[in-house]
Amino acid sequence: MLQVDLEIQVPNMAAQWMMGNLSTLLADLGDRWPACARDLTDEIAVGLFLSQSMYNLHTASVAEGLRLEAYAEMARAFEQVDFVIAATNPGPAFAADAATSSPTSSFIDSVKASRAAQIGFRGVMGTVRLAGAAFPRLPAALLEQVSERFPDLVRMGALTIISNIYGNPAVSIPSGQIDGLPVGMQVLARHHADELLFDVALAVERNNPWPLVATPQPTSAPAR
User: What is the mean pLDDT of residues 175-188?
Assistant: First the structure.
């Protein structure tokens, strides 16, 4: 197998992807939303309020333009190579009990900091929703600014969403640890080449098998 360096510039459309997908959750909640907001996790509730205010027909058209751009870029890449290998995630693994992937205080943390902050956020989103009716391009512009200001909202998953958008098969292969945290190697292939990815993953596993169970960590004895 010949390895080559290939620069692939795909747009990060994690925000648009997330907001579009939340429409299915809104359908499930039905008439219970938004009265049920406090029954949901803060992250889901914030996402729904953001989506309601910022996802309109113009935002969808921006997302479609990004999708076509990503599709063309991936097609160009697979004209030159059989596999694309990248990190599964662009950032380090986060704690199992973490609400978000951000290692520091995030946008969502600031929103859920207090009841007053949550009420203020809902008020701002309501204003954006009304303004968006008069200025349809406003939500998409605000979404772009939010993504730049709070990258933790769109960083995790930025390298895996492309497989969903482009529709090509991909596999994440355990490839070691950094500072005791697991790292995944994502391998992407052409359309309908799923069996080749199974072969690649099997070859890696045979050369460097990974544990099938978690290793328990020693705990200190309770004080008496």
Answer: 87
Give me 109's structure tokens: 């943390």
Task: Please name which of 133, 155, 131, 153 lies closest in space to residue 143, comparing C-alpha atoms.
Answer: 153
Question: Mean pLDDT throughout 37-45?
Answer: 87
Label residues 79-114 b or e (16+ Cβ within 10 Å = b).
Answer: eebebbebebbeeebeeeeeebbbeeebbbbebbee
Cβ atoms of 183 and 172 within 8 Å: the answer is: no
| β strands within the chain, DSSP E | 83-87, 170-178, 181-189
Task: Please state the pTM of the whole predicted model.
Answer: 0.72
* Domain definitions of the chain by residue range: 14-79+107-165
Tokens 């004895």 appear where?
Answer: 221
CA dihedral 146, 149, 153, 156 (to 10 degrees): 140
